[in-house]
Specification:
The protein has about 300 residues and is mainly α. Helices cover about 70% and strands about 0% of the residues.
């Protein structure tokens, strides 16, 4: 992020640096800090970009990120992304963000196509390759998600926590719980504290799906203790409770996440781990309050 800020300081009109910086703040808001801790800096980046100059694909990507992260205005997100891709069809970030939006709004097959296009446009982007695994899994393609995440680790040789998380989510979706637990347990041994909530969420969810209530509840206890030293998004509890069949507790955590303007909340419809909640009327009501459209299933 310091590098992006240095580029902006040298050339305040260079829009791609604003896009990258805004995406960094959005990612931090989803994984490491609260919305309240990141929104001011996010807004500052948006204001700087808009003051910098003329219409461009990058400006529309920034406005799309604002509409998603700041406003939860999914129609505006789509309008801005379509305009960005009209102006620059080769925009890797445009196709990546559009893929995310399509998963969030219940269009998984189109999402897979957009994500594949993003990978083809920039096969050396670790960010795109790493996150593609999650989107393929959300699109109901767990084997493709596993191979994508495993290939990313082999290609880049990184120790990023999210590749084993994506592989574990895929294996859990396939009912291969022992493999998923092994992947997550190994990742937890060396993970940074800030990465622990999502890894523990994955581990607790897997135990819950495997019928190991005691182990899942132990993970919930670890998450509780972790709140004393790092930000733990309430959303990460919901998949564990959903897997355990504790629907009231799952919805209680989602309500807390909604109240905190969690950056994870827009994934409500696209998160396959929340499937046990979908038939409950509270799910539709929450989706409506977030502004999510009814799923189209295409």
């Amino acid at each position: 992020m310091e590098c992006f800020e240095q580029v902006i300081a040298r050339d305040p009109s260079f829009a791609p640096a604003y896009v990258a910086l805004a995406d960094s703040y959005a990612s931090i808001g989803m994984n490491y800090l609260s919305y309240q801790d990141t929104v001011a800096k996010f807004d500052e980046v948006i204001r700087g970009a808009l003051a910098a100059g003329n219409e461009s694909a990058d400006i529309h990507l920034l406005l799309a990120q604002k509409a998603l992260f700041r406003d939860w205005d999914f129609a505006a997100v789509e309008t801005e992304l379509v305009r960005a891709l009209d102006l620059k069809p080769s925009s890797t970030m445009g196709h990546f963000l559009y893929g995310q939006l399509l998963v969030m709004t219940g269009r998984p097959q189109k999402a897979s196509d957009e994500m594949q296009r993003a990978i083809e446009l920039d096969p050396l982007s670790h960010f795109v390759n790493c996150n593609a695994g999650f989107l393929f899994n959300a699109a109901g393609q767990p084997q493709r998600a596993f191979e994508q995440a495993r290939g990313t680790r082999a290609k880049f040789g990184t120790a990023c926590a999210y590749e084993p998380l994506a592989m574990a989510e895929a294996r859990t979706a396939q009912g291969r719980y022992e493999e998923a637990v092994a992947l997550l347990s190994k990742a937890l041994e060396t993970a940074r504290e800030a990465d622990l909530p999502r890894l523990l969420s994955g581990l607790g969810y897997t135990h819950g799906k495997a019928g190991r209530r005691a182990e899942a509840e132990a993970v919930l206890g670890r998450l509780d203790k972790l709140t004393a030293s790092t930000h733990v998004d309430p959303y990460v509890y919901a998949p564990i409770y959903a897997a355990l069949g504790s629907l009231d507790r799952a919805f209680a955590q989602l309500e807390l996440a909604y109240g905190a303007h969690s950056a994870m909340v827009p994934w409500l419809e696209g998160d396959v781990r929340l499937a046990p909640l979908r038939d409950d009327p509270r799910f539709a009501r929450l989706a409506e309050r977030i502004g999510l459209p009814l799923p189209q299933g295409t």
